[in-house]
Give the backbone structure.
Amino acid sequence: MNMELLEHREVSHPVWKRFDQDHLANLSNHEAENILWGQIYIRFHQQLKHCSLEELRDYKLKLKSIYSTTEYLFKDKYRSSWEPYFYHLLETAYIRMEEGYVWNTNVLDIFLSILHDTIEDTHKDFSSLKKTYNDEKLAFGVHLISKKSFYTYIEKDSDRDDYKRIMGKIWEDNIGLDEYIINTNWLSKEDIERYKQLRTQYRKVRTKVHFSHYKDFDTFFAYAKKEAESLRVNISEQELEKLCYRVLQVKFCDRLHNLKTMWHMEVTTIQRKIEETQNCILPIAQEIAPHMAQKMEEEITKLREVIRERTQNQTKEEIIDHLPVA
């Protein structure tokens, strides 16, 4: 996307146009990204219409930096649907801006949405994001959205050594990168298999601990306070409460897009994600964002229909396979 061209568009009276998933699905990845980014950038300008020229310049520079850095970090990463991962980040931001007419949004929501997987799926961490963007609140928001590294949950010393050794082959002193290394040619087959083994072994406990903070808003806020103290984040309780609401809204948008795009996955994976959504995300969404909970429930209904159709087709195929040959 040519951001210089976008800057010269007429944005004093922008039109926030909705594009449904079917429309975007008919476009190339590049065309879809351009449309999403154009709409996000227009919304970005809406949020800054009362800013001073100096503030507007600073926000634009930060947005450019976030866009270019994130695009680079995810340039070789694809989702299981074979969509570029960067597209998912833009789609999450777009969904968040769509919901902005229900929940007031600001530029922080755009920044958080685009960066929401940066700590979890790249070598970046809280400290590096804070240094890169000179924004402690933004970096801490991304930290709160992210699951902690598998390394945090590995108990055996031998497993920890293997994990750190494998990660060290990709990023020096990095312990936050996960699926990305599966798609690289830097590792031997043995290391890839060992990594997958460690991931499978500790995935359940990692997911359980992560979503234990999502029981309700008070539980998530208590977790955020503890993390803020641990990382020595300079933020008032009132600011932290507002940040938690924004972080959770981005989390809901992230999950909503995941539900919209997992129809191609294995039935067992879809069922696991549905159960995870119902048990861990819907309760807190119903508490603070009922409209988002409703949207996720609608997508779950569609996925259950996908599962039903696949199961029926599989049963028919099994019957045909077992018919006696004439």
In short: The two ends are 61 Å apart (CA to CA).
